[in-house]
Amino acid sequence: MTDSVIKDVSGRTGRLTLNRPKALNSLDLGMVRQINEALDAWRDDDAVEQVVVVSEHPKAFCAGGDVRQVRDAQVAGNSAEGDAFFTEEYEMNAAIAEFPKPYVAVIDGIAMGGGLGVSLHGSHRVVTERASAAMPEMAIGFLPDVGISWFSQHVATASGHPEPAIARFLGLTGYRLDAADLLWAGWATHFVPQDSLENFLRAVDADGIEAALVEFAEDPAEAGESKLAAFAPCARQVFGFDTWREIENALDGGKCSGEERRVINDLLRSAAPTSLVAGAELYAANAAEGVDLRTGLRNEYNVGRILRHDPNFAEGVRAVLVDKDRNAQWQPKTTGEVDPTPYRRAVGQ
User: Fold this and answer.
1) Would you say the C-alpha torsion 72, 346, 122, 194 has a positive or negative sign?
2) Which of 29, 208, 212, 342 has its CA 20 to 30 A from that of 239?
3) pTM of the predicted model over 0.90
4) Which residue numbers delimit the Enoyl-CoA hydratase/isomerase domain (predicted)?
């Protein structure tokens, strides 16, 4: 057996290497605890000036939280296991955001769901041209969590300010961002080409993150042209509302081109109606003035717990991760049949 998170100190760096390759580094409770233990150990260790998180997998940084384990336990009647996993995972997300030293995530491959929670809350989010990211939870009857429904609405995009409408578009549709999109959206802070990565990490260990970035980070434009930037005017028109009904009405109201509406509808095709309604309520709550990350995580936990106990969650995970037929049978079948009241109450509205 090998550790699913390899912890070591190299030069100035406390390094966390995600190492659960058969699961594309999907986070389970053991991995969450190992990361939390490392952060606790390194927080006041003068020999560790920075933390760097990387992946051993050639294609994946981290494919998310292991919701299949959560679903299996819940189907067996053990909902406490899922509650424990999400409680400790969200505490890890907050600990990363509050870590007093540079926390550097190097995303070189796929990062989804929980993989963004273990990376985007850090001070430095480095991507290569192979980076690819999404919050695809709508397709499993869940919702964007790990603090991303808060983070994405409070980080500045390339426009120079936060854009909640862009954040809601990304989370509610599960749009997949490439490296250029991640940089444009503010989810990534720096671009380092993949062929420079090994030398970059050596420089981080030897000279510190800021010196290494001066030497190896390239202009974000080198990552290519952001398709998300081109789509942003449409997303702002449609997703700048607090309820799913308003968003749906804006989409039907002809504010985007026919091709843009087709793209959005294609993205939404696999989404659970309950998740869309609940997700819109969550995003509205987490965009509110005065809401901090920990409050945002609490809102995610409260809404997410309702959804995890709904049969749609077990059905969505079955369709995507167990049988992989991508043919979930949602109940109810339309968003118009979903009552938003429980989700509003869950976020204190």
Assistant:
1) positive
2) 342
3) yes
4) 14-341
